[in-house]
Amino acid sequence: MGFLKVSSPHAHGPMSTARVMRLVLLATIPGLFSLTWFFGFGTLVNVLWASITALAFEALALKLRKRPIAFYLNDYSALVTAFLLGIALPPGSPFWLIMIGTGFAILICKQLYGGMGYNPFNPAMAAYVMLLISFPVQMTTWLAPQGSFAGDLLGPIDALRYCFGFGRESIDAITMATPLDVLKQNNSLLIEDLWQESAQLGHFAGIGWEWANIGFLLGGLYLLYRRVFTWHAPISMLASLTLLSVLFYDGGSSASGGSPLFHLLSGGTMLGAFFIVTDPVTSAVSNRGRLIYGALIGILVYIIRVWGNYPDAVAFSVLLMNFAAPFIDHYTQPRTYGHKLKDQQGGKS
Amino acid sequence: MRKIWDIHGGIHPAENKHQSLLKPIENAGIPAQLILPLAQHIGAPASPIVNVGERVLKGQMIAEAKGFVSAPVHAPTSGTIAAIESRVIPHPSGMSANCIVIDTDGKDEWIDHHGVEDYSALSKLDLVDRIRQAGIAGMGGAGFPAAVKLSTRDDKPIETLILNGTECEPYITADDILMRERAAEIIAGAEILRHIIKPNKETLIGVEDNKPEGIAALKKAAEGTGIEIVVFPTKYPSGGEKQLIQILTGKEVPSGGLPSDVGIVCQNIGTATAIYRAIQFGEPLISRITTVTGEACGQAQNYEVLLGTPVQYLLDKSGFDKENCIRLIMGGPMMGYTLQDTAVPVVKTSNCILAPTVAELPPPPPAQACIRCGMCAEACPVSLLPQQMYWFSRAQEHEKLENHQLFDCIECGACSYVCPSNITLVQYYRASKAEIRQAQQDKIKAERSKERFEARTARLEQEEAEKEAKRAARMAAAKAKAAAAANAPEASKADIIQAALERSKAKKAEPADPAQAAIARAQAKRDGGAEEESPQEKTERLQKLLASAEKRLVAAKEKLALAQEQQSDNADAFATAVSKTEEKLSAIQKELSEHQASQAPAKTEPAGESTDPAQAAIARALAKRAGAGADESAEDKTTRLQNVVATTEKRLAAAQQKLALAQEQNDANVGAFATGVEKTQAKLDAVKKELADHQATLGENAAAEQATSDDPVQAAIERAKAAREAQANMSEADKIKQTLESLENRIAKSKEKLEAARAAGDDKAEILADSLAKLEDKLATAQQQLSQT
Amino acid sequence: MIELIAQNPFLASLLALVGLGLVFGALLGFAAVKFKTEGDPIADQIESLLPQTQCGQCGYPGCRPYAQAIADGDDINKCPPGGEATIAALADLLGVEAKPLDAAEEAVPSVAFIREAECIGCTKCIQACPVDAILGSAKHMHTVIASECTGCDLCVEPCPVDCIEMRPIETSLQTWHWEKPKPVEDLIASDRSGATA
Ligand code: SF4
Ligand code: SF4
Ligand code: SF4
Ligand code: SF4
């Protein structure tokens, strides 16, 4: 007879995992573009080198685990990790730093747990945190944005050279504290004065940073439009962050935590909200769960930024909440059709 | 506009409905053969009421409903019954089930049938019964007998009657075209339903907004009837009964409940037309509208198809291109199931036959890992968490699956449809549901087995205890007797036996329960046999065993004889003990001889004169007991044998009495007694033979004869023998007659039992019915035999 | 005294530790008494997981004795009718490693069937059946109540004319169901068939 015997449904929607990942990659373009515009080609080189090493590590791991390599490389998940890590690292990072990062992300955080879908922690963020703790110097030297200093931006050739360790001295000349650092170190000036003082603070949240964040916001909105993820986690994260910064804005005194806009558009806020917090594998599963998950990340980000030891906190907060995700899931099972919420909760152990 | 509620989730797959809407409904005609499965509905299969070779008319009932949730089957056209046999039916398993096969004659001759002049004059019960007799089962896909749904109880008033014209599955247009062409019939059916159900609020027909022509036709037909056509946005799966109810009324059917629990009755519009035809014209459900579509069909179209029409026939009509078609689906692309065989028939629930090309519905790509993207949860109309259930299903975590409401999943397939990793989620859920159900059943069965086992153990223990008590009593009696008889010279022998018996008692106390023995055997099997022992050792061991068993047997027999003499009531206990010991003995004997045979053929004992090894063993035991056989004087032997004959005869008589008594009282142990009598008889014969042989050698034959013939017991035996001989000499016919009688008796008894079981609602009733049927079969054959002789 | 302790940090910390130990010990002890679980004795729980086939293949005369034996420390992998599923459940309950089944193969679920024409009505099978699943009386044909039969196999051997056979339970339309898909993501490089997409 030769007819297939398969279980329904027979039709399948247009979405595939690879397509989801490709869309995510596509959505990073505006952010990448503004990063490059303001900080030079360093980030692009990061991303490029991270992608190469990530794919190599992934292939290696698959070979060791005796899995079909082409089948798994085709899901683009390693590339997404590489892109996110490359963007998060300071532009023009040395090649070994990036390589350690991707190696840790792919080999330890992903494949060791069983590959895509099985990792409890977001690999890019876990690698970022690992690097931050191990190599604090390299991880906190950020380039100065265009317009805040006299020299030229990092060109593509220079960026490559720096990355692979040639003439790194000159790069140190154009580093500068990030806006979050500036705010953190401030302890006497009113916010208004601080802005006057520091050239790199720009209009709201730092030259370049504002635009990079807006770029990632745009990419995120595109993904939302394509229904790659739901609005719950990113919006609730941004909302809780805004809420806290409004509460502690304090009219711009010297003890102020910074304006809401500053927090929304500075550091890794938008990248985190739309590209990290939405990482499906490691977040909560139900929409209610995602609201809670996102909100808690927002709160943690603010707390660590303002009262913690590190200037930015997206990576830490996400990792912390990765721990809590299964717990959140347990308590946020949605109400099923035909059940009363109470019964359902009561039915659980 | 009335308020429309929204359901959670849902998807918008490509509709592909226009292809089959280009042409009007066409009558598919009469194929040469119709195959009508007996189970075209949910519930018990119908049972055939026609015979092979019988001519049937169109609309004639050929199988009747069995039970409340069931539906009869009617002949869709005139013809002859070609077979009632197992045929492949439309079912995802591709398995077969009982079908009635009709060879059509092309005359399409109707049976006499009448509609109802004025249905409003009839009672609800009457109308529902007509619908039941018409064999109408839900035509939307599930096939729930319509009459069952309509049998609402008065204590659950119905507010809303809903007709489902949603047809949310892609490709299918059977309901759409029905609305376009037969809107009036739908509305007429709705009126009848309204009359039956008497909804105290409203009657609604729900239709998705992608069927504007159908909606217009319905609206026109419904003018002035008060039936409201509710149009709502297209979204799969809004046509699911529970989903439709939520969309139209905002109510949710409680989990595990029925729509009537929230005051709603829901029927498909196809069912409504069928009901209309059944009431108005008296036509049973014999045809339906089926969409034949998919790109592998040259011409997609809706057909009015006689039930039982093979799918192949419809495909042929539609220019089916088999090369291009990789799967054949009955139903839609979301919930339909694949067919393996084009010979399967169209049944009451077959709304669509979908023959897609490879490009249209490509084979599923390999599944990737779940990335927990949550798209499935977004799409699920029941607000489940499919991704979680998927993990639990893979990990066999049944409890968690149930906590995640797996059983509320309607298997709509929306989750699988959206899953970017191509995971066949629904298949996991189906498998897990089946596994859980199986586990529950196993659990129940284990529970029951345990109960039965415990009950049995308790019973055995009790029996054992009773035996023990009797044994004690008997021992006391025997002791007293022994003391009384101490002076008598012959008593010494009895004493010795008594002592031997007591010695062996401890050993005998181990119950010879066959179950125990079997367990021991199973254990032995598992252990891969006992530790190795040398052949020598084994022979010795077996011989020892044999000797002790023989001793025990003799002792037990004496004891039995004694007990019988005294008319003691534990004689039967001894009888069983004896027979058990004999069994054991023969087993050991066999093992030993086998062992010896395998060891050294030369050592093999010459095949004994007696074919019964136990008998031989007894003989040997007797010999042993009397000391070395050779030393025994001829005189002694004669006396001894005579003694044995006498006691055995007595025993036999006692056993026969017992048997007679048991038979009179219809005792359950009759069988055991009968065996006992038989065995004793055999033994007696053997001993007698021995005696005779012995006496022959001594030339004292006549004296022995003399000694036995005036024994009254002997007379009884003689009589029994005569009876047996008479039976043996009975003519064949007589024998059969006797069997007949006994069979009839048994049937009568079984019937009584069956009745009692039925009355008690016992679940054994079916088993009894089965065995009754078997007995009746036997009776029939016996009768046949009798008539032949 | 107090002064001595205050002066001597070593002594102080030692005392603090001991004190803490006492307090927590008391707390734990109290909790153990107060929140004592009144669950089934462990043997009962084990027994409820055994298939109750009563076949004795575990080496014990029935499931209950085996349950008791497990509770007393016997291996959990001796029940062929239960198979891997039972072992897994037991391992779960007892918090021990699941082991492979200690038998050649898992028993296929089956029921006994008596070829009735050959049955001589000796009642031996009835005596052997641990769950009284055989109906019949002496000299009359016997039959197995299939729904009660646990498939334990014990009635086969005692039959003197070998008219009892074990028939595997067949899938019927009612019991048929979809199998779980074989997860492709676990596929390895050697079986590429499905993975070339
Ligand atoms: S849609 Fe598929 S991949 Fe996404 S969460 Fe559901 S099962 Fe997992
Ligand atoms: S098949 Fe079940 S789990 Fe999947 S979407 Fe439908 S109802 Fe939800
Ligand atoms: S092997 Fe299993 S089913 Fe058989 S008696 Fe032992 S525990 Fe019970
Ligand atoms: S009928 Fe046979 S196989 Fe079935 S439970 Fe009884 S003894 Fe075991």
Plain-language structure description:
The complex is a heterotrimer of chains A (349), B (789) and C (197). Chain A is 62% helix and 1% strand. Chain A is an all-alpha fold and 349 residues long. Chain A has 2 domains: 16-177, no CATH class; 178-329, no CATH class. The model of chain A is unreliable at 345-349 (pLDDT under 50). By secondary structure, chain B is an alpha/beta fold. Residues 506-512, 601-611, 626-632 and 700-709 of chain B have low confidence and may be disordered. In chain B, the strands form 4 sheets. A 6-stranded mixed β-sheet of chain B has the order 1-14-13-17-15-16, sandwiched between helices. Chain B is built from 23 helices and 17 strands. Chain C folds into 3 domains: 2-34; 41-94, Orthogonal Bundle (3-methyladenine DNA Glycosylase II, Chain A, domain 3); 109-170, Alpha-Beta Plaits, CATH 3.30.70.20. In chain C, 34% of the residues lie in helices and 7% in strands. Classes of the chains: A mainly alpha (349), B alpha/beta (789), C mainly alpha (197). Chains in contact: A-B, A-C, B-C. At the A-B interface, α1 of A face β16, α8, α11 and α12 of B.
Helix fraction bin of chain A = 55-70%
Helix and strand pattern of chain A: HHHHHHHHEHHEHHHHHHHHH
Q: How many beta-strand runs of chain A?
A: 2
- Number of separate domains of chain A: 2
Rg of chain A, rounded, reads 21 Å
Give the CATH H-level superfamily of the largest domain in chain B.
Answer: NADH-ubiquinone oxidoreductase 51kDa subunit
Overall mean confidence score, pLDDT of chain A: 81
Query: Alpha-carbon distance between the termini of chain B?
Result: 85 Å
This entry's quaternary arrangement is: heterotrimer
Distance between the termini of chain A: 49 Å
State the low-pLDDT regions of chain A, or none: 345-349
> Which fold name is given in CATH as the topology of the largest domain in chain B?
Rossmann fold
